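User: Structure tokens for this complex, please. No commentary.
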Amino acid sequence: MLRLIATVLLGLLIVCYVFLQDSIIERRQNYRTSDKILLVADRPAVTKALALGFDNMVADMMWIRGIQYFGGNFSSLQDNDKKRGFINLFENLTTLDPNFIAAWEFGGFVYNEACKDPQLAVDFLSRGGHQKGNEGNWKLLFDAGFISFFSLEQYDKAKELFLEAAKRPGCPPYVERMAFEMDYASGRFIAAWRQYVQYAADAEKNGDTVSLDIANDKLDTIYINEVTIHLDNATTLYRVKNDNKYPSPDMHELLESGALMEAVSDFLEKSPDQKSVFEILTGGTMDLRRLLFDRKGQSPLRMLVSQDGTETVVSFKSRAVLAEEQQDAIRNLQQMAEHYEGTEPGRPLEKLEDIFEQEWATNIPMPKEPLGGEFYWDTQDRQVKVRNMQW
Amino acid sequence: MREIAALALNTFREAIRNKVFYIIFIFALVLMASSLVFTQLALGEQDRVVKHLGLSAINIFGLLLAMFVGVNLVHEELDKRTIYLLLATGMSRTQFILGKFFGLFITVIVNVLLMTLLLFITIGFTQGATITPSLVYAIFLYLFEVMVIIAIAVLFSSFSTPVLSAVLTFMCWIIGHLAEDLLTFSERLEKEGSLALAKLLHWIYYFLPNLELFNIKNQVAYQESIMVFVTWKAPAMAILYTVILLTITSLTFAKRDVR
Amino acid sequence: MAILSIRGLSKRYNTGLFSSSVDALKDLTLDVEEGEIFGFLGPNGAGKTTTIKILLRIIYPTAGTAFIIDRELGDAQPHQIGYMPENPYFYRFLSGEEFLIFHAQLSGMPWRDVNRRVDELLEMVGMQHARKLRIGNYSKGMVTRIGLAQAMLTDPPLILMDEPMSGLDPIGRIEIRRIIMELRERKKTIFFCSHILADVETICERVAILNKGQLIKTATVSEMLSEVASGQRLVLHQPPESLAEKIRNAAREAKDVGGRLVAHFDDKATGDELCREAMIAGVQVDEYAPERGTLEDYFIREIGGKNA
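Assistant:
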């Protein structure tokens, strides 16, 4: 009997216990005991001594808890105390286990992202990369290089780190490309361009289509960035001469007004050594039209223009792309024209504008000819055609 | 009730006469030596250092006391056959377990209180150090942790040898301080979709005492606000856990042949 | 009325995980009457201590039950049993007085009675002088005496004693025997376990013999003794060879012990005749007396054969 009572009581107690545990788990949402890890031991050497030889295990424990902390409330970490806590944590971790790559990596990330101290991150990461025993790891140096490049804009330092990382085993080829990119980012356009051209040629020779595509994309991006500077300068010139009016989104006005030519000459006057840049960009012809339209790449050029009074960024596309768009537009218009004639038999289309007065097409704007000409309806052939072709 | 009290007091008396309280002298030595040294070394951080050391020492000595006296408690009575006499007086097994538990708990409480007094005195003599409510609360919470540890020690001691019990109790202590990680891990697994494993870990957590609930040592040293931690839930958890363990212990112990 | 009735009590120990079990006690049935001193005899491992442990509910029987003063074992029992353990090993850190007070508290004795009762018992077992001394410093005899005092603390009608005399010197034995006799005068029932036959023979009225967990016999001491063969014993100092030869032929058993001839006769007439002859021959007769059987003889007869 007594036993029965005790067993029933035990059951009740366990139920209470489960409820209490539940509510404690709920409370955890506001407060996590693992936060405390960040406040302990600010002397890594002491921590190492106290670990009594269980260094790696202690490091693992700290790691597990530290990670949980970031999983929980990463965004709330700004103040100085927290930063001190992080430094404690990662210094402890990496002192306990200098070959703990993940700790080095994550430490760099946290210093850069949470503490907003990229210099600290770069120092920490490159220290990790140069730690004895970590010679086989490229990632730490790459991360250090990337932060140098991206956050600190220290391109020389970044290039150095990237090149060092690229020499390490298992390093993917893009790291070397990043090093070339540093040349470009630091204004050394030609060096970067040549490296990428070389890289593309190598890739083509080896039949490495993936690398080839990447290299071409990179070349394209470099090209665009370079040209955009001059487009912007040309736009400024154009506006000065034309009552602050923006040039039209197609680039003919810029070209025809001579603004682009002027901007480039001004630039070359100031820095004649950049002439070779334009030689490269125009394929040796120095014809600035080629600069704008005769590109292989698909990425659009950009510039700030006025359209209906508001300023917008408009993309300029290469001639190849525009030609494609022109063909698309002709196909669409042809279809619409046929539809126009089909809806009311015996009504021949006189001009394209008539289509857009139809009820079903009033909301559609008449497409502009991408290459600067205009579309028209050839009543003889009953075909949409382009006239005033400038190119 | 009276039987339990008599046995508890007897256990306490045994602990005293076994010179268990010598621990306090070691504690005092550690504390005094450290405060002397650190007042010199820890420029401006004496408050932190003294409290850190004091609380850690109280924790460690309390744990050692609870563990090693605890695991010997029941076993010694069996080994020396003194339990025959106790049972012959008509005492029930449950009373026996409770008497032993409370005896040890009293011992540890008295020990911890004496150590606390010594710590307070040390703080009083240390420049720049003050006794804060958070310090008192930390020790108060610690007593609950010890309570759970004692219940665990008594449970193991009721069916296994002292060495094995000590090992098991110590493991429980470690796991208890890592229980929180288990829960975090389970939450992580749930997010990743391993529902079954997450559930399993969650249930394992339920049956472990989360000893981190009673640990606010670090907050004390950094003078954080303790109001975050002041809740009835941690002590309630400890009491419930202890009662459950003691019930299980006496249920299993009642069925056992004592040899 | 039987104060203690044991009915079909069995205990089986499982010795290990896979090994076979051991029967420590097999179907023991036994009655102890009120006011008697009951000897529970048997060699080591016979099951005496197992029986006592079951009665104290330290271990649980595999089968059977027992009634103590009409209460079945397993009832929530008040303190009807005094217990005096084998090789008493009390709390070494307590003084004799503290030990008794502690037990009085455990027994639920009212506070106001405790001191008086403890004084009384210390007086009775002659331990007044050592009441403040720690048990750890007691001699074997003192420990036994304080153990007895503990057993009598609540003045229980039934006292179980497990080998109370073991390890005591002769003076100690006499002292314990005196206390037991005193208890008998107070009409206490004593269940006395022992493998020392001489003690049982002098103290007990009725005896049960146990071997290998089984009850062999229950009888009064005198019944048992009468069953053992008795006869005459003759001891002669350096008898002449002719006489010695004659005695050897007539006696049940005869042997030379240090120049003396010790002979046992079954028949009293033969003994008388030969004794007279020796006296006539001028041989010195050291001893001639009827021989009384001992419990030891009985015990060996009963158990010896079965053990062989």
